[in-house]
Design goal:
The protein has 201 residues and is an all-alpha fold. It is built from six helices and no strands. The termini are close together.
Length: 201
């Protein structure tokens, strides 16, 4: 669909912008690292290598005139992943909440998983927020990115409430607060999916 495809174009562009900033930052470094320097972020290096590899492969694909070209294939994949991500986020939170309530998953595990999800969604929300503020995008794209930023922020908050409930599972008030937030999140996801799919879907 058109709007979803546009979302993924922008996501790839974000990766390119991040890579360009990393290259610029590297160029400013003049002194070698010292033993007391901050440890290297292996995750950041992995993402950097991934972006660089994708850029090189995209150039090769374009030169070979492949059909479909690699960029289009990547963008289609990212678009579908963006939509699936918000849907599956609800499934994950609902499933963890039910497992905690039924005793199918221990409180310690639930709390750890919920905290991880809260942190990851917070980071994702910030990325979408940066895209929403990008001047290169038209209002429709900005609206989509802003919606994604808000949904991921809501997911992060809901995961945080799940972690709080897991700290004291006997507290029915915490359980009710989490479940109310989960229902609100579900409503936002439903509205977003209907929006990107368009009328008649």
């Amino acid at each position: 669909m058109r709007t979803t495809g546009m979302v993924l174009v922008a996501l790839l562009m974000l990766g390119q912008v991040a890579y360009a900033k990393e290259k610029k930052a590297e160029a400013k470094v003049t002194a070698p690292a010292t033993p007391t320097a901050k440890p290297v972020d292996k995750d950041a290096l992995t993402i950097k290598r991934l972006v660089e590899g994708l850029r090189q492969a995209a150039k090769a694909s374009a030169a070979a005139k492949e059909e479909p070209d690699l960029v289009s294939l990547l963008l289609a994949t990212v678009a579908e992943t963006a939509v699936s991500g918000v849907i599956h986020g609800h499934y994950a939170l609902a499933g963890c909440g039910q497992a905690l309530r039924s005793g199918g998953m221990g409180a310690d595990d639930t709390r750890a998983y919920a905290r991880d999800m809260a942190q990851n969604w917070q980071q994702t929300s910030q990325l979408y927020g940066r895209l929403a503020a990008h001047k290169a995008f038209d209002p429709e794209l900005r609206n989509i990115f802003q919606s994604l930023a808000l949904i991921n922020e809501k997911a992060s908050q809901t995961a945080g409430l799940l972690a709080q409930w897991a700290e004291l599972t006997s507290d029915n008030g915490r359980a009710a607060t989490f479940e109310a937030a989960l229902e609100d999140y579900r409503g936002q996801v439903k509205a977003f999916v209907a929006f990107v799919q368009g009328p008649g879907k």
